[in-house]
Design brief:
Structural class: mainly alpha
Shape: elongated
Number of helices: 6
Distance between the termini: 26 Å
Radius of gyration: 25 Å
Strand content: under 5%
Number of domains: 2
């Protein structure tokens, strides 16, 4: 999660100033510095984003949800970037204006990460009971298989209630 928040924040901060520095005195060395910095940030963000986005989707729709989200973002930002950058340069007369688009895209990405983070936290709160219930069912199965003791469904449910009420923020241990 730290990479998903730090990378877009850094891109938003260095996008326009970096391109302004490059436009001020263009050289291969400056181009290489800017390209390597932005590439490193992109790699850090993209590596973490793929895993985070896939894990944030429910298993039943993970493939469709991930591909839709990833493809829409790529189409919107990748497809319209040449048009927007050309328009920004034309309107502002500043050859570094594409850095503004880059910074805006980074802020949108950061907002999306923060939204998904809040959504994941809310969903985790709602799944505590289901997680505890699954744990009790697993315990029940193990006890029956081992013939140590047979626990009735009502006993398991009361144990579940006791565990969840004792500490609702903590997941019961397996």
């Amino acid at each position: 999660m730290p990479l998903l928040m730090a990378a877009p924040l850094l891109v938003a901060c260095i996008g326009y100033p970096g391109l302004r520095w490059l436009v001020k005195s263009p050289s291969f060395d400056r181009l290489l510095v800017i390209e390597l910095c932005l590439s490193a940030l992109f790699a850090a963000y993209n590596g973490a984003m793929v895993a985070f986005l896939a894990e944030s989707m429910p298993r039943s729709v993970r493939t469709a949800g991930f591909s839709l989200a990833f493809s829409l973002a790529t189409a919107l930002f990748g497809g319209f970037t040449p048009f927007v950058c050309t328009w920004l340069i034309h309107v502002t007369g500043d050859k570094a204006a594409p850095g503004l688009w880059l910074s805006a895209a980074a802020v949108i990405g950061l907002t999306g990460v923060m939204g998904l983070r809040a959504l994941a936290a809310g969903r985790a709160q709602g799944t505590e009971y289901q997680f505890a219930r699954n744990t009790i069912e697993l315990d029940e199965t193990r006890m029956v298989e081992n013939s140590d003791a047979v626990v009735s469904r009502s006993d398991a449910t009361s144990r579940l209630s006791e565990r969840v009420q004792a500490d609702p923020g903590k997941r019961p241990e397996r």
